[in-house]
Amino acid sequence: MKLKYAIIATIIFNLVLISIFLCRQYKEYHNRKHDYIRIIEASKAKIIKEIENTNFYSDTDPQIDKSAKNVLVFHFSMQACQPCLEGIREIIKSEFPDYAKNKNIIFFSNDIENRLRKNFLGKQITTSLKKEKIPLSKYTTPLLFTIDSNNTVQNIFIPDKDDTESLRNYLKKIKNNYFSKM
């Protein structure tokens, strides 16, 4: 009988230890996740601070229509993951069904291969033959922004593949504020 109580006490003790261990692991996981999110947000803020309110193109850049007002730019690097780029394109396509022919929506990449420039992600890719005015080429992170009538980068958005709803909301806001007036 004493052996039975000893076994029950040992089982209860082990369950308590396992519970404490799992609670600590759960807390550590959330701390790491919180730190990771903070690092990502700081990186996004750095990118935004560096390129916001800068000029997008030079006056002599032949590939960019300088008469267009309020242009939406999807900037990407070929180093970004292809499924991520395709996912962003699909969301752009759902909000702007005419994105492929809309001259006020630019897909921009300076490291795309020549053979892909005519049709990549369903659209002709704009590249700059001149040195970029903003330091986009050092970032492999896809990002979206608008160019206003003064050639100034505004409304920078860095999409998160795990939060497609925020990208949809961003595109809806851009569509309502800039494209509904056209």
Total helices: the number is 3
Q: Looking across the biggest beta sheet, what order are the strands in?
A: 3-2-1-4-5
For the sheet with most strands, the description reads:
5 strands, mixed
Cα end-to-end separation? 86 Å
Summarize the helix and strand pattern as letters: HEHEEEEH
Per DSSP E runs of 2 or more residues, the count of β-strands stands at: 5
Q: What's the pLDDT, averaged over the residues?
A: 81
Radius of gyration: 24 Å
Sum up the overall morphology in one term: elongated
Outline the low-pLDDT stretches. none
Strand content bin: 5-15%
Please estimate the helix content.
40-55%
Alpha-beta content class: alpha/beta
Characteristics of this structure?
about 180 residues
Write the SSE topology.
Layout: H1 2-51, E1 71-75, H2 82-95, E2 105-108, E3 125-126, E4 143-147, E5 153-157, H3 164-179
Explain this structure:
The chain has 182 residues and is α/β, with parallel strands linked by helices. 44% of the residues lie in helices and 12% in strands. The chain has 3 helices and 5 strands, in the order H-E-H-E-E-E-E-H. It has a 5-stranded mixed sheet, covered by helices on one side.
What's the gist of this structure?
This protein has helices at 2-51, 82-95, 164-179; strands spanning 71-75, 105-108, 125-126, 143-147, 153-157. It is of the alpha/beta class and 182 residues long.
